Amino acid sequence: MIYPTLFIGLGSTGLDILEKFQELVMEHYGKSSLEIFRYIAIESRSTAEVRRLEWGNNDIKLLRPVITSTDSIANAIKSGHKNYLKDWLNTKLLEIDGRSFIDGASNIRMAGRLILWENWDNISTALNEAYNQITSDKNKKSAEVF
């Protein structure tokens, strides 16, 4: 039996894995996705694109979270509005050149986590929407064929 599944890829490697996985689904089922599958890639590089595969379009939803100003985060920490960041965030990160993360996390794990956290409302909305789609009765019934 096939179960509703949400596949999530983080960063450029996660996006690459989702693309390869879709190729495997295509080989096995004759299409890149089933109604009870959803693919979400979270990639903050502005140049990242979902590849058009030789057999058709990808079914990957690409989310592009960014931080336009680390100054606003630093000010929120200083004013006590983001105390939850103090336990794990090295505030030196907020002084990075450009004081933003609009084109990736620069291979800095802490930056990636911060980008994810600061954009969590949009990301969680996309995840919840995908979950609701894959668990709908209509989509579960259509997948029973497989």
Brief summary of the model shown:
With 146 residues, the protein is an alpha/beta fold. Helix content is 41%, strand content 11%. It has a three-stranded parallel sheet.
Trace the largest sheet across and list its strands: 1-2-3
**Number of helical segments with 4 or more residues:** 5
Number of strands: 3
Silhouette: elongated
* Structure classification: alpha/beta
Provide mean pLDDT, rounded: 89
Radius of gyration, CA atoms, in whole angstroms: 18 Å
Cα distance, first to last residue?
8 Å
Determine the fraction of residues in helical runs and give it as a percent range: 40-55%
Low-pLDDT segments, ≥5 res: none
- SSE pattern, N- to C-terminal: EHEEHHHH
Share of β-strand residues: 5-15%
What is the makeup of the main sheet? 3 strands, parallel
Structure description:
The chain is an alpha/beta fold and 146 residues long. The protein has five helices and three strands, in the order E-H-E-E-H-H-H-H. The chain has helices at 11-29, 70-78, 109-118, 120-134, 137-143; strands at 5-10, 37-42, 60-63. The chain has a three-stranded parallel sheet with strand order 1-2-3. Strand 1, helix 1 (11-29) and strand 2 (37-42) form a beta-alpha-beta unit. The chain starts with a strand and ends with a helix. The model has no long low-confidence stretch (mean pLDDT 89).
